[in-house]
Amino acid sequence: MAFGIEVIGKLFLSVFRIVAVGFIGYYLYKLVKQNYTFGFIACISLIFAGAIGNIIDSIFYGVVFDHSFGQVATFMPEGGGYASWLHGKVVDMFYFPLIQTVLPGWVPLWGGEEFVFFRPIFNLADSAICVGVFLLLLFYRHTLSTSLSKEK
Fold it and tell me: Does residue 92 have an active-site annotation?
């Protein structure tokens, strides 16, 4: 799911994403019709756009590219891609290790080991989802709970 963490099979995850985007799209449509604030709609839109980006990757990437382990992926390889429809991997391309060091020997348990602060590799879609959720929780927690209770 986010940041390249896989828990369940690819097909289930791809179908789950498609269903979730359908619900988020419907929810977004209802929010616009009910004239919610621009900021709230923008947060939901970020989540929606990020989910669509991950769906596009998981549907098409495995079919039109070969694997990229230790090489640059080839577009439309002769033998076909590395996976079938809905089984592709989401492309993660950003890696920003803010601190990369070796912990001092006096640190209990981890002394002398490599330490990397912010190790996840992520993509723009993951970022859109995380920023949308963070802003919702930070600024629109009450609006979110009110809008969800109206849906029931």
Answer: yes
